[in-house]
Amino acid sequence: MQSSLPDKIHAALIMDGNGRWAARRGLPRTAGHEAGTHAARRIVAAAPAAGIGTLTLYAFSCDNWARPAAEVSALMALLSHFLLKETEDLAKAGVRASVIGRRDRLPGHVRDAIDWMERRTSEGRALHLRIAIDYSGRQSILAAAHAAAGAALDADAFGRLVAGADVPPVDLLIRAGGEKRLSDFLLWECAYAELSFCDVLWPDFCAAHLEAAVADFRGRERRFGALPSAA
Ligand code: IPE
Ligand code: IPE
Ligand code: MG
Predict the structure, then answer these.
(1) Is the pLDDT reported for residue 3 higher than 50?
(2) Residue 27: which CATH number?
(3) Full-prediction pTM beyond 0.85?
(4) Structural domain contains residue 1
């Protein structure tokens, strides 16, 4: 039974509410996305001290291609700019950064930025930062089913195909922006995740919100289907 809390947790974050943040200020949605990159930088910096060992950020879903072309290309430009700009600081902070999701549909400049960031930060041990770009939880389960090719794998072995061999299950899933849904994020990995929904729009999300969510998580009792540990 896995009743004890891990020291370093896997936190996953749905960074939602950029468009509404901008609309409230009379700004274009892209201004919200840009402000969202500043929030992402703050949260990555705060994560190790908050007790997070793995941090997965949802930046762009497979379904986000359905947005207007101008918003999609602004997002792609912001993503590659963010990855290139942050890489050096991430490496210095001992962060290993990697990207999950499909690469084949991304513009070349985003793929190049991902390759550089992953290579430059590969030695980091203070935090594993994972950024989900063109990501779909259902698609990653489907890809694992194809890779398993009919082999009778148990849930742990199949989970390694879905999530990656070195990635622990999600302990805490936080969604900013007020919505209470998963939007196709880490469906397998969140099987026993504790859920935390925060009304704060992503560009306003700061270290204090992250710390409050982790503190609340530390107070929860996880049972994984068994009985409370005192029973
Ligand atoms: C999250 O903010 C960023 C992405 C999905 C790329 P949104 O753009 O979804 O902002 P809202 O939810 O419309 O406010
Ligand atoms: C989820 O937000 C995806 C990301 C934050 C990248 P969405 O704004 O796309 O989700 P829905 O459409 O509200 O479910
Ligand atoms: Mg949204």
Answers:
(1) no
(2) 3.40.1180.10
(3) yes
(4) no
